[in-house]
Fold:
Amino acid sequence: MKRFFNKTWFFALSVALLVGCYPAGPDYVEDLDVVYTSFNKDFDFQSKSTYSLPDKIVIDVQIDKNGDTTIVYMKDKYAQQYLGTIDSNLQGFGWTKVDIDKKPSVVVTPAAIETTNFYYSYWYDWWYGGWYPGWGWYYPPYYSVSSYKTGTFIITMADPNEDNPINKSKAAWIVAMNGLLGSNDQSRAVKGINQAFTQSPYLKIN
Amino acid sequence: MKKILLAACVLCLGATGLVNAQGNTVTTVTYSIAFPSADLKDYIGKTSFRGVNLDFQKMVQDNIGVGLSVGWNVFYQDMGNATYTIDNISLTGKQYRYSNHIPVLMSSTFQLKPGDSMNPYVGLGAGVTYSLRNTDMNLYTLEQDAWNFTVQPAVGVLIEASDVTRVNISARYNHGFKAGNELKNAQSYFSLNLGFTFGD
Structure:
């Protein structure tokens, strides 16, 4: 009996040692950052040349019990840096920025998901719906909006001039960056935006 | 992880009790370093320094033992920051890969010089290996597993350390044949094992 316990403890210790040195994975929160991009294979990026971009980034839409809505925007000091990064990447790829009333080839709509995810298309439909009555965009079947988590930064590119029976444009390009907005370290989100363009060479039109 | 730990503990304690209930038995515990091959090597190229084997054998003759062999080898690789593209989707981030292998085998050994202080042996095991592969990015994991029918040839040597204890050095090749739909290829690796054999 004594020997049984000696051996048992010896083996248990061996297993415990192995468990104790089980590989740990990520060490820092930055190690969890991911940048996802996808594009519509039927979309002809090369035939486009102009884009429009809002001057604010929406982070939430709050709806009270009377149905009144309040749009919540990202603080300007963050938003302007991110919008500027998107601008410089698009222009580096040969795109020309125009106002929304100048009939851009595409609209580019960034957002950050602070708490919920239902508002995103709602707000941007409103933003350019004013110039393209009844228009908005929808997600192609290869991407699900339910993939968005709190702290996700999203960029969608769509052609508002697309003609189809449901008055909705299929998103041509989608970016979702997880984990980049959890801190006030802006460089992580900027790096993520740059990476989104780096891994999307099909956007280059020059 | 919990599944693996539970399985390992149950196997370890259960098998210890089973073999100790009988006489004329030898028990071996070895630390295992493993080298991936074939599909496993494509997935994780790095050597595993996390492994353990437990062997319980009844000596049916002076030089022939039969019994149970269980083990656990963990392969791990931090793939660093990289971009993975499939069709029209690209994903960039750090990827962490884990591959756990738990063989549970009926085993036999044939000792070439029983009684000598240096006693070489050959062995063969057959049974199943539970293979569990996790690919982690961000907070997501892709988990794939398989129960691979396994054969495990081995060669080794026992070096006398005391009346009832011998140093055990062995090399094994664990070949888990293709099984199931999740891991689409055979899972195999070589291992070098160093430890002790206790027994009458």
About this structure: The domain at 25-203 of chain A is CATH 3.30.160.670 (Double Stranded RNA Binding Domain). Chain A has four helices and nine strands. The longest strand of chain A covers residues 168-178.
